[in-house]
Amino acid sequence: MFKFFKRVKTVVDSELNALLDKAEDPVKMLDQFMRDMESDIREAEAAVAKQIANEKMLQKKYEEAQKMVEKREEQALKAVEAGNDDLARRALEDKKLHTQTAETLKESYERAKLDSEAVRKKLDEMKAEYYQMKLKKDSLKARAESAKAKTKMNRTLSGIGSDESKRGFERMEEKVLQFEAEAETSEDLRSSNKSLDDEFESLEKNDVDDELAALKRKLGKE
Predict the structure, then answer these.
(1) φ, ψ at 41 (rounded to 5°)
(2) Which end of the chain has fewer beta carbons closer than 10 Å to its terminal beta carbon, N or C?
């Protein structure tokens, strides 16, 4: 369990660049690493709790055996005081058995206590590493997001200046120039047609004046 936790930490430290080079999303991978670490910590906490429970059980059994040793000692003393050597002897024999049991339980308890301290210390180290990696993950995620944003922006900007974009822009510019030329030509034609009509109108007006003058001459008005 602890070994796997260290493997995950090594992956985050040593293989991040390899992940970035692949098609994998580093942000998602970092989140997955953190979930794996959290799972390892929960397993370690369960193991520590189990070890502590075992330590307390052995401690309780050792203390009970020790109390029986003390109890049989007192009983043997009372039996001797009462002049009952046989009862005193039986109490001392049972005391001997409880003494052996107590010594065995004491060794087991002390060993379990050391084991509990060791796994507790290991769990504390795991949690410290986890929080360090969490800070590092947050920093790496921010860097990854920033890099992705820069990449997207650079691609957008490079697209603006691409040959295809330039050609498209030039085509639109040519169309605008063409529209402007057509509009100018249309205006010239309209002006030309207007001048021609004005000339004919003037000509027609002159003919009427001539006819009017002729009529006046007939009537002797002039």
Answers:
(1) -65, -40
(2) C
